[in-house]
TrEMBL record:
Modification after translation, per record: Acetylated. Deacetylation by the SIR2-homolog deacetylase activates the enzyme.
UniProt key word Transmembrane: no
Functional description taken from the UniProt entry: Catalyzes the conversion of acetate into acetyl-CoA (AcCoA), an essential intermediate at the junction of anabolic and catabolic pathways. AcsA undergoes a two-step reaction. In the first half reaction, AcsA combines acetate with ATP to form acetyl-adenylate (AcAMP) intermediate. In the second half reaction, it can then transfer the acetyl group from AcAMP to the sulfhydryl group of CoA, forming the product AcCoA.
This enzyme's EC code(s): 6.2.1.1
N6-acetyllysine modifications at: 637
Domain AMP-binding enzyme C-terminal as annotated: residue spans: 555-637
Protein name: Acetyl-coenzyme A synthetase
Binding positions for Mg(2+) per the UniProt entry: 567
GO biological process, one term: acetyl-CoA biosynthetic process from acetate
Keywords from the named record: Acetylation, ATP-binding, Ligase, Magnesium, Metal-binding, Nucleotide-binding
Organism from which the protein derives: Rhodoferax sediminis
Similarity-based family: Belongs to the ATP-dependent AMP-binding enzyme family.
Amino acid sequence: MSVPSSAIESVLIENRVFPPSDAMVKCARISGMAAYNALCAQAGGDYEGFWATLARENLAWSKPFTKTLDESNAPFYKWFEDGELNASANCLDRHMGTPVENKTAIIFEADDGAVAKVTYKELLARVGQFANALKARGVKKGDRVILYMPMTVEGVIAMQACARLGAIHSVVFGGFSAKALQERIVNIGAVAVITANVQMRGGRAMPLKAVVDEALALGGCEAVKTVLVYQRTKDACNMVAGRDLTFEQALAGQSTTCAPVPVSAEHPLFVLYTSGSTGQPKGVVHCTGGYLLWAKLTMDWTFDLKPEDVFWCTADIGWITGHTYVAYGPLAAGGTQIMFEGVPTYPDAGRFWQMIERHKCSVFYTAPTAVRSLIKASEADPKVHPKRFDLSSLRILGSVGEPINPEAWVWYYKNVGGERCPIVDTWWQTETGGHMINPLPGVTALVPGSCTLPLPGLMISIVDEMGHEMPNGSGGMLVIKRPWPSMVRTIWNDPERFKKSYFPEELGGKTYLAGDGAVRSTGEATNGADRGYFRITGRIDDVLNVSGHRMGTMEIESALAAKSDLVAEAAVVGRPDDLTGEAICAFVVLKGGRPTGDEAVRIANELRNWIAKEIGPIAKPKDIRFGDNLPKTRSGKIMRRLLRSIAKGEPITQDVSTLENPQILKQLAEKL
Ligand code: WTA
């Protein structure tokens, strides 16, 4: 935050420790540090036995597994492979005949405030019927289905219906462009696309089906035989005869009963594309057994979900957080969850607090970016301040997606949590499937800005480039030393890239490299209270984190380079931003020379719109700077570190004596 007083506070609060309340320790599933240590010791003593027991206790298997972990083809690890189960059966059928059957599974609040509730029994029937509709279109086990859906119950139903048939879903976030969508459809070889006519956000209808049509017309999508369209509104959309059906048409006459197809624990449940260091997004593959175990287990461990809890994860189903903590985890755990279609600032920035009050939310999980923007909004307009709402139902708060700065942490703790709710700051990634490092509500003393300790059983440490363990207080690369059940299995169609990206030879080929930098606390400032706690310092690769969304700098550079009539060369870096965590800054050399004044502004806007078309609006650079050329080393490598300093507005301390044209530093420092 740019408020001066909080900058002072930040120095004061960094080392404050917030131990768990006695009440929380008493009621939590993992109760107290001794219980946590005992679980860690169990895993340390018999790693496979530890996970095998949890997998038997937490999942319903149609065929029990006999082997827990197969490391014979490392790093292509396999978990519970000869066991069979169905993810949808574990989320729905499993609760039939129990008190959960008639419990509300989803409280859906639409963009316009309309509320609809669906019970587990109803959800099962709707998923069954949808699965039958897919089946009728020939979708079967192993087929790939793309979802391009709004945040609606229908989105979850479609995901669950795919899982029910053993079809592999791949959800593409509704903010991605037609081009990005087409690339994913082609890469995965989808046979069907599930979408809606529009999505409603902030009172506006945004087309989805039209984007699907555009994507399919780009070519290479001949395998797509079916497009199912949810009529979110009455607005008509283009329908292609023989290929496109509305949900209503597809569901007509279909039975609500559909037997779940048992699949191997290692059968892919979904593929989710995410950004990496190179231009092409990678299709992260997650498999049924290990992933689902994690979704269920972390609901219990991290959120300590109780039968009476009302859980709310604000993430979109287009991201991993929306997969694990909307579409699968809460259902596998038999919980009641809130699902929200809209945006936190519509009709005003009090929406989240109003919804917590209205639905008596008890566990609330959101991103630091949202918290920071709502701080700002409530400073500008006291009517949307959380203090104006009854938030007494809350008992646990969560944070995900990016580091939470201590100022935002303390505001969230005080104003939303009423100083009684622990904040679980969860570090994890698309690739890890679920939570990895985070406090447990009944165990961990909290320190603002620290994600604290690994979940029981996980072998996580910080190493240097040679793989040597770093002592507390020294930063290094975050690694996971042993395989865990919910880990990424491969990159779709690219096993070599999987090995290279995550299991580098330099570290022995079996250690998972997360791509984040981290440091463990010495505990000096807290009398040892946080000794060994992890603090994430940010990505160590060319991946940016903008508002909790992962973005590859190379992806944006490739998009710029593709505008070949204008752009000669471009380099993209991140710079810190008060609101979005990081902001995208692009340095561009144009073919027609360096523009100035209004022309520069016009071209910058043209480039922004171009990127929105190539990737999506979330990838639009905040800053675009033009230069006659880019600073390069003698060997021709772009000096990115220098560009980062320029983007931040820092004085240049690097050696620039080798630059051919030092004049460009001044040019590139110039804001439009
Ligand atoms: C970052 C989102 C600090 C990190 C679940 C990671 C975090 C990337 C945190 C993964 C956190 C996520 N503290 N950094 N609590 N959570 N990150 O794949 O850089 O969208 O590598 O998964 O977000 O982003 P992804």
